[in-house]
Specification:
By secondary structure, the chain is of the alpha/beta class. The protein has six helices and seven strands, in the order E-H-E-H-E-E-H-E-E-H-E-H-H.
């Protein structure tokens, strides 16, 4: 059975390799609607499912994996910043604060005709505590990280990760793919993993 990751994220691809199973990537062009739900768990699961559904009909007899990561600062949902100025403001708002990173995960099983046979969604949250960020810290993050293509302008494995004081929860979730939850979902769909 083919396994398709509906993502262009290099971090998600790297984490998928840890499963030691063959997979392919097919970027989903689903247009994200960040206003669809008011809570991060509901929104992240919805977006993950829509990304997977967007390409599911192209892959009969397959499992399609969709993921979507968003952040919250005091319950305010933050996605990918549209501009460098917005990324700067966002990073300033994270300085010295707790930030929650939510990842919605969706797996879809298609039958031989390419119809949806089964759908499973889940949600994982990790809490990060940031140290105080100086204007120079923020400039360094913007210079080194791909801030416009990641939720909350945050790349935990990049420059911004240097300013995270504590992590409560799943580190892989912050990278965009909670592997433990994904294994459980794949097991339910008949892919047995250790």
């Amino acid at each position: 059975m083919r396994i398709i990751l509906a993502s262009r994220s290099p971090a998600r691809r790297l984490l998928m390799k840890e499963l030691n199973i063959p997979f392919e990537c097919h970027t989903s062009d689903y247009e994200e609607d960040m206003n669809r739900f008011k809570t991060a768990p509901a929104l992240s699961k919805f977006l993950a499912l829509q990304k997977a559904l967007y390409i599911a009909n192209k892959y009969p007899n397959a499992i399609i994996i969709g993921a979507d990561t968003i952040g919250t600062i005091k319950k305010r949902i933050v996605g990918k910043p549209p501009t460098i100025k917005a990324a700067t403001v966002l990073l300033q708002s994270m300085s010295g604060k707790k930030v929650k990173v939510h990842t919605g995960l969706a797996t879809i099983l298609t039958d031989k005709q390419g119809k949806i046979a089964q759908k499973i969604t889940s949600h994982t949250v990790t809490t990060l505590t940031f140290s105080k960020l100086t204007p120079q810290n923020i400039k360094d993050i913007i210079k080194e990280d791909d801030v416009l293509n990641v939720a909350g302008a945050l790349t935990i494995e990049g420059e911004s990760g240097k300013y995270v004081k504590t992590i409560q929860g799943d580190f892989q979730n912050v990278m965009g793919l909670p592997v433990f939850q994904l294994k459980e979902m794949l097991n339910k769909l008949g892919i047995k993993l250790n």
